[in-house]
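fwd from M.: "can u put these together and see what the complex looks like"

so here's what she sent:
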Amino acid sequence: MKGLAELLAEHPFFQGLKPEHLEYIATCSTNVVFKPGEYLAREGEEADRFYVIRHGTVALELFVPHRGPLVIQTVREGDVLGWSWLFEPHRWAFDARAVTLVRALAFDGACLRRKCDQDPELGYELMKRFARVIAERLKATRIQLMDVYGNAGGR
Amino acid sequence: MQPETLNHLAAGPGRTFRPLWARVLRVRRETHDTWTLTLDTGGPFAFAPGQFNMLYVPGVGEVPISISGDPTSPGPLVHTLRAVGAVTRALCSLKPGDLVGVRGPFGTPWPVDRAEGLDVVIVAGGIGLAPLRPALYYLLRRREWYGKIVLLYGARSPRDLLYRRELERWRGRFDLVVEVTVDHADPSWRGHVGVVTRLIPEVSFDPWNTLALVCGPEIMMRFTAQALLDRKVPPENLYLSLERNMQCGVGLCGHCQLGPFFVCKDGPVFAYPRVAPFLGKREV
């Protein structure tokens, strides 16, 4: 059976991270499984963790009164889910629902913040990786906001 | 009167300036605003994948519409179009038996012959799937000549997806990768939600040996081209289908000028390096 550090090393988010860093942060993670329909996170609740998706699809949803939940994005294997653990007030900004069976590694946010404070090199490396994810999601969201498939007029 | 009789009466210098009369055989509603017309032109209508026709509704006007049928199987002419203006609304309101004027086919085709021995990545956005469908039919007909074939399709919402039954059939094939994403959805949708460019880093293909065909709104094509170049697809293997205000179809009127090109004659399909300097440029 593979150890958590090996599972981390296989995930695109952690590729290239030093083996000693992988071993160091693996102690903050646990293997988790969600059935379809189960929630990985709920809007407004304490964001004390983030997930590294190993298998399956997760829908990020916002509940809109009179319209119900709207799916704003899906993430799947190879993605990470959640960065609210990094910044105060550590609250989830959306619901995250398992669309399919989801296997993931859940990271304890407080544990990881402590380790990043103790080892700034690790902290900087992780921060760069999260910044890249945030920038990519922001870019994708901007394109989504443009409603590019909307009616541009014509003959 | 049959289309062949009408076309005999209208005999002239080809179908460049004088329309060929076609009779509507079928009108199929694809989505809430998009229809597919099947037209009888009185005989086989040869075309290459990616070409377009000018469709004419008497008393209303003429519009350029891509051909979306199968180029490998001679049969009626097929066009899928979205009702966005007076002419397209008139076309979408036609009934079986009505007549439509057809000029064409015009324009440059998808370079499907260049794809032999390569992986092919097709990226479609919205109604952009219609001009790509003939290329996919062509590739699937000669499936053994190509490496991986990947179709990435993005739409506004699940109700805006074109050719749903065909998409399901294609997804069921073992020799074709099909990924569909929408910009927003309700929880009943079990597919991807997000922009189509996000699928590009996730699918498996050999970038150096890939031919990419892209069609959709121009801004989506710009971001898609960037994502494909980031994956190291050679720029000269990347093709886009552009849309401008095509009127004459043969590069005479100048309405569809893009820098040194007339999109109707030099395009609509362009190799990326030819048009890259003009994409996103103001006043072009």
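replying to her w this: Chain B is about 20% helix and 30% strand.
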